[in-house]
Specification:
SAM-dependent_MTases_sf, 2 domains, Rossmann fold, 16 helices, S-adenosyl-L-methionine
């Protein structure tokens, strides 16, 4: 294999150990992490899908593993960027694979059961429900283990890198409320409300009435229970519906946090127009979402699209702003939170590892492996400026928006 792809396959900063104990050493790094090929089916996965999807399936199935520092192992992906194999090289790999693993690898191995299988028109109401439930309807307890007591599945807002996650998440909720200038008695719409944390914070600390929408049945069950336990059922409502199905506006303020990534590029203008139509004149909307820094869309990542966020799409923040402006929303404020999300993801990884056995008991080992890989890889992507996240605040015309001349009281200090 050493001569394939101009020798790049022989210069990886990881060692490879096979099921029989044989090892390919790392190039010049005796203490490098070890990629473990636990079973012949790992080779079969890669043989039948010689791309990221084959590697992803082997990882999820547990037949491809890592010992040592997983982060360093993930760094090896840079050595494979742009790597392509010609027909002659593929045949050479097939010969080596047959010699090592035997003819059984010619049979396609089972695809992991948790792989998403999207059906229907992309970003239709039906398919979006399938995609959301694939990710969120796994186990509320699992999310409690990962997210902590705040149950907030979006980036926190840290005053300093060492701050605890719960304090930083509380600050993020308050920052959103202050940017929206929430006032007692106002009507707030939370698009993609998750487990209800923003609604609860806004009602407790700012006196609003709120409606939250989610496509996840499990999220809605837990959000309604938390609202009832807080004694706020007369002021807060959670619906299982799509934002395209909301018909009882207007709302004074709208928050969309960690949701627009599921909307899709072709739906961005419609998304912004619907939010604008649900706002009263002079109302404010805050869109908090992940964006890509590269101007051109990268090739789809099979691991993310098949195992984490089916049909998820990231866009430059300028696309989001352009859609808002096309819908008649005036962009008033934009803030990057890139460093904050890297810190948040690393806290979530720590939580997962601290509760790994219970997490596996809740959702199974394959899904735990997916979350570990996806959250750690995402933290690295934010740190390496591959992706970022923005809060974009916009106002509807037709009346005074009430925003001050300066960012008074934002961010929150306590």
């Amino acid at each position: 294999m050493a001569g394939l792809a101009d020798g790049r396959l022989a210069r990886l900063p990881v060692a490879v150990r096979f099921w029989d104990g044989s090892t390919l050493p790392a190039a010049g790094a005796p203490d490098a992490p070890v990629v473990v090929v636990r079973d012949r089916s790992a080779i079969a996965h890669i043989l039948h899908r010689p791309d990221q999807l084959g590697l992803a399936r082997a990882w999820v199935a547990g037949t491809l593993d890592a010992e040592g520092d997983l982060e360093t192992a993930l760094g090896a992906r840079e050595n494979l960027t742009g790597l392509t194999l010609g027909t002659r090289e593929r045949l050479a790999l097939l010969r080596d694979a047959l010699r090592i693993a035997g003819p059984r690898i010619l049979l396609p191995p089972p695809v992991p059961e948790i792989e998403a299988r999207a059906a229907g028109r992309r970003h239709s109401l039906r398919r979006d429900r399938q995609a959301i439930r694939h990710h969120y309807d796994v186990s509320n307890r699992f999310y409690e283990l990962v997210l902590g007591p705040s149950m907030v599945y979006s980036c926190a807002y840290f005053a300093e890198p060492e701050e605890d996650l719960e304090s930083a998440q509380e600050r993020k909720l308050e920052v959103i409320c202050r940017k929206l200038r929430l006032q007692p008695g106002e009507r707030l719409l939370d698009v993609g409300c998750g487990w209800g944390s923003l609604l609860l914070h806004a009602a407790r600390h700012h006196g609003v009435h709120g409606v939250g929408v989610t496509l996840s049945e499990q999220q809605a069950v837990m959000a309604r229970r938390r609202i009832a336990e807080a004694g706020l059922s007369d002021r807060l409502e959670v619906r299982v519906c799509d934002y395209r199905e909301i018909a009882d506006g207007p709302f004074d303020k709208i928050a969309s946090v960690g949701m627009y990534e599921h909307v899709g590029r072709d739906e961005l203008h419609r998304y912004a127009a619907i939010l604008e139509g649900l706002l009263r004149p002079g109302g404010l909307v805050l869109n908090h979402g992940i964006a890509r820094l590269a101007p051109h869309a990268p090739a789809p990542d099979p691991f993310i699209t098949r195992y984490v966020f089916p049909d998820g799409e990231l866009h430059p923040v300028t696309d989001v702003m352009a859609s808002m402006q096309a819908a008649g929303l005036e962009v008033r404020d934009v803030e990057s939170l890139r460093e904050h999300y890297a810190l948040t993801l690393r806290r979530w990884v720590d939580n997962l590892l601290a509760h790994r056995e219970e997490a596996i008991g809740e959702v199974g080992a394959p899904r735990e492996r997916v979350w570990h890989m996806y959250m750690l890889g995402s933290a690295m992507a934010f740190e390496e400026r591959e992706i970022t996240i923005y809060q974009v605040l916009a106002a509807r015309g037709g009346a005074a928006h009430g925003l001050p001349l300066v960012r008074e009281g934002v961010p929150a200090t306590g």
